[in-house]
Amino acid sequence: MSTKIVVIGAGSVSFGPAILRDLFAFAGDLRGSEIWLVDINAEALDVMARYADKLNAAFDQPFTLHATTDRREALPGAHFVIVSVAVDRLATWKLDWQIPLQHGVRHVLGENGGPGGLSHALRHIPLLLDIARDAEQLAPQAMLLNFTNPMSRLCMALDRYTRVRFVGLCHQIGEGYRIVNRALGLVPETGDRWADMHTIQQRIHITAAGLNHFTFILDLRDAQTGEDLYPLLRAQLAQMPADFELMSRRLMDVFGLFCASGDIHAGEYVGFAAETIALTGYDFHRYEQHGRKQWEQIQRIADSTEADLGALRKAVRPSGERAVPIIHAMLRDLNQYELSANIRNDGCISNLPGDAIVEVPAIVNARGVHGIQVGPLPKGLAAIMRREIEIQELVVEAGVKGDRNAALQALLLDPHIHSYAQATHLLDDLLKAHAEHLPQFA
Predict the structure, then answer these.
(1) Distances in Å between the alpha carbon of 58 and those of 11, 35, 312, 317?
(2) Residue 1 pLDDT grade (very low, low, confident, very high; cuts 50, 70, 90)
(3) C-alpha angle 46-51-54 in degrees, rounded to nearest 5
(4) pLDDT by residue (tens digit) across 387-414?
(5) Which member of 66, 103, 171, 437 is catalytic?
(6) pLDDT confidence of 247, banded at 50, 70, 90?
(7) pTM of the predicted model, to two decimals?
């Protein structure tokens, strides 16, 4: 029986090509699989489907390819469902960033935590749950691999309101490797993000755990000798320029561990982050420019009548994302080690709630993705995370039920909010700005 893999959100220029290249990088092991590409944007989907056809020809037709705008057509009998979806991503994120600033909220990114993370979650919880419920009905044994943010909140919604098997995947652990390597100076970097990551991992091994975008290095080793590198890291960080990951260094000095997520992402959960991180937000302009260039390249290949199939094949290499390697490990029962997976805690971090969604190392085999027990976190860090977990619970309740009071409670618990008036007026403005995407609050 062939493996059926459904990719929802395949028309995304940042997601679709990367997943396709990963699938073809594993074409030898996944040969004979049925790949369904799904996106509600028919024009983008058509381009991506034609790009996939070119890759399929370059690799001697390893896959049976399908494309549809109707996920229910694609899902029946699926073994794996990869999801990366967004509601008008850049336009809505800009509002999530700008509106809190207008109310005096000094936040640093506005995507996964803080009031921006609340707003982001309210739009995406219903969408992801609709996809998951279709999978429950049409592919009840499937593993859902989620890339959509806010990761912890959406995975919590999956856990609380569906029966799907799931794992949340995020490549931010790679930033931890790059930060540590810059401090230690062990591996020269070339600028090739994923090649550098692979090389760095040959020298450094990190064990990190916590919440998505808020993980901390529990253990740091020389991957070749097993030497404990934490003492060297502490010494080297003390010599780094004052602006080098300053917030994470302060957290380490106070709570004992260095953050593996990088200041900007971790700063979404820290009330004093704006003291050390500029309030410039995400570089939307650069993201849009990069996306246009990527799309033009994909479209040229898709439109070509005489594509250089040899060059296409040679250009395919793993993206560094982990969905396809995890699928491969499950199909081959590999007991494969993964640096990070967002899953239900169930004792992996002993001093966080068992039903929290945590990001921990994991083992992947035919039975699924299994978190590794890492013990307790320092009390102070665990306290910050427990507060965030309670906020996540309220956000999920608000997103599912359209409960304005739950959303207000989530804001009032947030470390970025400093007054009742600020919270109520901000919430009103966010709900009004995104009303067309929030039918549960109508």
Answers:
(1) 21, 16, 7, 13
(2) low
(3) 130
(4) 999 999 999 999 999 999 999 999 999 9
(5) 171
(6) very high
(7) 0.97
| Phi, psi torsion values for 383, nearest 5 degrees | -65, -45
**Length of the chain measured in residues:** 442
Q: Omega into 376 within 30° of 0, i.e. cis?
A: no
145, amino acid identity: L
Q: Give Cα 227 distance to the centre of its chain.
A: 30
Alpha helices (H) in 139-259, listed in sequence order? 151-161, 173-184, 193-201, 230-237, 246-255
In this model, does residue 51 exceed pLDDT 80? yes
CA 112 to CA 210: how far, in whole Å? 15
Distances (CA, A) of 337 to 9, 53, 182, 325, 340: 27, 32, 25, 11, 9
191-205, 221-235, 264-278, 347-361 — which is least confidently predicted? 191-205
CB 145 within 8 A of CB 83: yes
**Burial grade of 381 (CB within 10 A; 0-12, 13-18, 19 or more):** buried
pLDDT-above-70 percentage for the chain: 100
Round to whole Å and give the CA distance between 75 and 255: 46
* Positive/negative CA dihedral, 15, 19, 22, 24: negative
**Cβ atoms 94, 284 nearer than 8 A:** yes
Q: What are phi and psi of 401, to 5 degrees?
A: -100, -5
Residue 370 CA to its chain's centroid (Å): 18
d(CA 159, CA 234): 38
Are the C-beta atoms of residues 141 and 84 closer than 8 Å to each other? no
Residues forming a β-bridge with 4: 34
Write the pLDDT tens digit of every residue in 130-179. 999 999 999 999 999 999 999 999 999 999 999 999 999 999 999 999 99
Catalytic residue check, 198:
no
**Amino acid letter for position 316:** V
